[in-house]
Amino acid sequence: MQIVKYQFQQHGDNRGQLVSLEECVDIPFKIKRVYYMYDTAGGVSRGFHAHKTLEQILICIHGSCKILLDNGAEKKVVYLEKPYEGLYVPNNMWREMYDFSEDAVLMCLASEVYNESDYIRNYEEFLMFLEEQEKKA
Ligand code: TYD
C-alpha cells in the first residue's frame, strides 16, 4: 500500500508560518466539505469506516494523532503531527484515528458533502464491497 503524504508549501517569515491550500492545486480534488475534530477524549479511537467514493486529506493542524489505513489486504499506521502535512485517504480505505494528543485538532478536507450512504461502517461489509469491486473490474 502506498501512503501519500503531501508536504504543503509553508510561507514562513519572521512573523510565523502560513499554509494555503487550493482545490485541484494543492489538494487533488474539489473541496466540498471541511470538518475537524478537537477536544478528543483520552484513549478514544474514531473512524472505523470506509467510503465508497469519498476522498479526503487529513491534516493534524495542531497536536498529533495516528491514522490506521487498511485497504483490506494491508494495514499501515501514519503519524500526523505537522500542520503542513496532509495524508491522502482514497475511497475504499478503512480508517481508524487514535492516540490523539490532548491539544489535537484533526482537520479533514473532503471531496463530497456528508452522505451517510457513502459510508461502510462494518468491516466484513467493507471486505465484501472490495471483492465485488474486484469482480466488476
Ligand atoms: P462520525 O461519522 O461518527 O465520526 P467518526 O467516524 O470520526 O467517529 O460522525 C460523528 C457525528 O457527526 C455523526 O452524528 C455524524 C456527524 N457528521 C456530520 O453531520 N457531518 C460530517 O461531515 C461528519 C464527518 C459527521
Order of helices and strands: EEEEEEEEEEH
Task: Report mean pLDDT, rounded to a whole number.
Answer: 98
Principal-axis shape: globular
What ranges have pLDDT less than 50 throughout 5 or more consecutive residues? none
DSSP strand content: 35-45%
Helical proportion?
Answer: 10-25%
Going across the biggest sheet, name each strand in turn.
1-7-4-9-2
Structural class determined from secondary elements: mainly beta
CA(first)-CA(last) distance: 19 Å
Total beta strand runs: 10
Largest sheet: 5 strands, antiparallel
Q: Which ligands occur here?
A: thymidine-5'-diphosphate
Radius of gyration, Cα only, in angstroms?
A: 15 Å
Give the gist of this structure.
With 137 residues, this protein is mainly beta.
Characterise this structure.
With 137 residues, this protein is mostly beta strands. Helix content is 10%, strand content 37%. It contains 1 helix and 10 strands; from the N terminus they run E-E-E-E-E-E-E-E-E-E-H. The strands form 2 sheets. A 5-stranded antiparallel sheet has the order 1-7-4-9-2, with no helix packed on it. Strands 6-5-8-3-10 form a 5-stranded antiparallel sheet. The structure holds thymidine-5'-diphosphate. Thymidine-5'-diphosphate (TYD) binds at residues 33, 35, 46-47, 49, 114.
Helix-strand blueprint:
Blueprint: E1 5-7, E2 33-37, E3 46-51, E4 56-62, E5 65-70, E6 75-80, E7 85-89, E8 94-98, E9 105-110, E10 119-120, H1 123-136
Main traits of this protein?
37% strand, five-stranded antiparallel beta sheet, single chain, binds thymidine-5'-diphosphate, mainly beta, 137 residues
